[in-house]
Prior knowledge:
Elements: E1 2-4, E2 13-19, H1 23-31, E3 39-45, E4 52-56, E5 59-63, H2 65-68, E6 71-75
Antiparallel strand pairs: 1-6, 2-3, 2-6, 3-4, 4-5
Amino acid sequence: MIKSLNDLNSEESGVVYEIRGGQGLINRLNSLGIITGKKITKIDSMLMRGPVTILVNRTKVAIGFGMAGKIFIEVNKRT
């Protein structure tokens, strides 16, 4: 199932499926280690469109709500 990063629940993880944005956004996310095919886990998000905290490469990263909405994740199925 494909969801935007904003739609993931806390502690839910998956693989980056697509980034819908311009080259500037893609370059910024690449510098944070967020690239297509990379596994990430959503740790937490603030209420009212606040920052979203994720885990990438064993590193916690906080990104803005708007930026998170442009990252689409293929969610891991739970067994």
